[in-house]
Amino acid sequence: AISATAKMKGKIDALWMAPDTTAVTSESTEYILLFSLKNNIPLIGISGKYVKNGALMAYTFDNEDIGRQAGEIARQILEGKPVKSFAIHPPRKLKLSLNLKIARKLGVEIPQQLINKADKIYR
């Protein structure tokens, strides 16, 4: 992840972290966060934790609601609904985390409408 990130310098407008445990390590995360700030490239994190630590934003699913969805599907299966009859269900609820301090450092203007919709804001 580190060497791939370094090769992107001057070629990208933003960087989106992938939820890949082989690429997202504590070492690579620290490098990517520093690369983002040093090169004035917004980083889109994979969770609010990364936003708190320096990513510009993250748009993630709501863990509690995903659990509810899984429980509802499990109940339907236990009531006899065939597993093959289920389609893929996208998350019903999403969470937006923003880091306004990072936005200022990067010169990124976040519309007030988006700030108003954020679930977590770091200032």
Characterize the main sheet.
3 strands, mixed
As a percent range, the share of strand residues is 5-15%
Shape: elongated
Spatial extent as radius of gyration: 18 Å
Please write the string of helix (H) and strand (E) elements.
HEHEHEHEHHE
* End-to-end Cα distance: 28 Å
- Count up the helices: 6
What would you call the structural class? alpha/beta
Strand order of the largest sheet: 3-4-5
- Quantity of strands, as a count: 5
Helix percent reads 40-55%
- Low confidence ranges: none
What features would you describe in this structure?
The protein is built from six helices and five strands. The strands form two sheets. A three-stranded mixed beta sheet has the order 3-4-5. It has a two-stranded parallel sheet with strand order 1-2. The longest helix has 16 residues. 42% of the residues lie in helices and 15% in strands. It is an alpha/beta fold and 123 residues long. α2 links the parallel β1 and β2. It is elongated.
Map the helices and strands.
Elements: H1 2-6, E1 15-16, H2 26-38, E2 43-44, H3 48-52, E3 57-61, H4 63-78, E4 94-99, H5 100-106, H6 112-117, E5 120-122
Parallel strand pairs: 1-2, 4-5
Antiparallel strand pairs: 3-4
